[in-house]
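Example 9 (inverse folding). The structure is encoded as follows.
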């Protein structure tokens, strides 16, 4: 890997940022239902990106996230007035990173580091700032630029345009198997961060490497 890899590109949500760090706030607003709300919110958020991409009806990730929250609350029969919805939405701008993220990224400075995410530029800028990661990445790339979501090849194609690195020299890292499948099909070397020991999806492709935590990426890259 280290002989030809020039850039490491990370998915944001679920890979660097823990989307379920909103559970505590969800539980304060809806006692005993925080985990269920967070899980359904995330599930519908992803589903809406795929449905909007397939239907050619793009809305940015902030709007998709709010629609998913609205549905999740309605599905669980939770009253969510505008001020509560706004507070929950704002929590997406202040997600926590997974524990090993900062230390791992600091050991990878020999590569160009970047984020490639469905998140809107506003959401990503806020999350990166909150996490204290500003200055670490050469670029933070949003699918909003091409108005379609991963796993469209148009999104993965943004990386070489932004970084000036050929696709063959890019390693892509994500905790989402569907994202890994899209990146692998596009032509990237891929590493799946399988934090929850899930089975591989049946999508006709396999990651080049699988690790349990992000810090285990380092020995993989060192070969």
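The amino acid assigned to each position is listed next.
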């Amino acid at each position: 890997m280290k002989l030809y890899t020039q850039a490491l590109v990370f998915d944001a949500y679920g890979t660097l940022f823990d989307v379920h760090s909103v559970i505590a706030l969800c539980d304060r607003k809806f006692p005993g239902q925080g985990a269920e709300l967070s899980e359904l919110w995330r599930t519908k958020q992803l589903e809406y990106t795929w449905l909007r991409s397939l239907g050619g009806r793009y809305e940015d990730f902030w709007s998709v996230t709010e629609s998913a929250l609205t549905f999740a609350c309605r599905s669980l029969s939770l009253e969510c007035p505008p001020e509560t919805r706004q507070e929950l939405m704002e929590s997406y701008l202040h997600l926590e990173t997974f524990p090993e993220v900062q230390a791992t990224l600091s050991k990878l400075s020999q590569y160009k580091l970047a984020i490639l995410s469905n998140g809107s530029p506003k959401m990503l800028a806020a999350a990166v700032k909150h996490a204290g990661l500003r200055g670490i990445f050469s670029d933070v790339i949003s699918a909003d630029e091409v108005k379609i979501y991963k796993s469209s090849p148009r999104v993965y194609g943004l990386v070489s345009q932004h970084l000036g690195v050929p696709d063959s020299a890019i390693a892509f890292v994500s905790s989402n198997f569907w994202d890994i499948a899209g990146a692998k099909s596009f032509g990237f070397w891929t590493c799946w961060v399988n934090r929850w020991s899930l089975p591989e999806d049946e999508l006709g492709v396999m990651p080049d490497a699988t690790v349990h935590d992000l810090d285990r990426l380092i020995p993989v890259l060192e070969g």
